Amino acid sequence: MTATANDQRTGRAVAGEELFESLARFVVTHNGQSPEQAERIADQAVAFVVTAATAPLPMVPSDDVDLGLHALILHTKEYTALCEQYAGRFLHHNPKPGGGARDPEQVAASARAMKAAGFMIFDDLWTVDGANLAQCDSDCGRPYGQA
């Protein structure tokens, strides 16, 4: 059976309205995104963390989704609760300064993993423009969810 948009999970539903609205406002305020775009970014960031919690591959966010991921991490109490609920531990964010741009294949593989986990994907947010100088690496270079 093929999943329809109604069957797919959303980061918004996982986060709950209070956290979701706070994330979206943060992305608008601190990253200059439109409210509509900020909501899409926030949705994908939450879905990314939930998927990364158990994914058997290194998860790397796109440039756009990373904006939402940083907003989520700065909501420390809520981020910690998501990590505990879905991974059973805190998922550290360890960027690699000077490590080069994001690997487009790892970004694409992350989006595929989210889709396989049942999340709705906004394809246009999963791009790499090559402008980033630091790759946001998953949990000390290991796939999230693994010790």
Short recap of the structure:
The chain has 147 residues and is mainly alpha-helical. It contains 6 helices and 2 strands.
Would you mind describing this structure in some detail?
The protein is mainly alpha-helical and 147 residues long. The protein has six helices and two strands. The chain has helices at 11-15, 17-31, 35-52, 63-74, 76-87, 104-116; strands spanning 93-96, 135-138. It has a two-stranded antiparallel sheet with strand order 1-2. Helix 2 crosses helix 3. The longest helix has 18 residues, at 35-52. The relative contact order is 0.20. The model is unreliable at 131-147 (pLDDT under 50).
Q: What attributes characterize this protein structure?
A:
disordered C terminus, mainly alpha, 147 residues, two-stranded antiparallel ribbon, 2 strands, single chain, globular, 6 helices, 51% helix
